[in-house]
Amino acid sequence: MIKVLIVDDHALVRMGIRRLLEDMSDVDVVADAESGEQALAYVKTHSPDVVLLDMKMPGIDGWEVTRRLKKQTQILKS
């Protein structure tokens, strides 16, 4: 099972992606986050295999989230 975290500041986008992924038998959407701050916290608690990340968000944007995640983990492909 592939664990996925969805990150986007627009609820409608998160909901649409979740619905698409939930139809896949080998994908488990473990959480969705509306901000970069939430995403960083959820990565620690849910240990997703994949993070689908909006790059343009208010506050901590996707680029900064990616930089911080690269520092936190050895296994990260962007």
TrEMBL record:
Single annotated GO MF: DNA binding
Pfam families on file: Response_reg
List of residues that carry 4-aspartylphosphate: D54
GO biological process: phosphorelay signal transduction system
Record keywords: DNA-binding, Phosphoprotein, Transcription, Transcription regulation, Two-component regulatory system
Gene3D superfamilies: 3.40.50.2300
Xref: InterPro entries: CheY-like_superfamily (IPR011006), NreC/VraR/RcsB-like_REC (IPR058245), Sig_transdc_resp-reg_receiver (IPR001789), WalR-like (IPR039420)
All residue ranges annotated as the Response regulatory domain in the record: 3-78
Protein name as catalogued: Response regulator GacA
Organism in which the protein naturally occurs: Legionella pneumophila
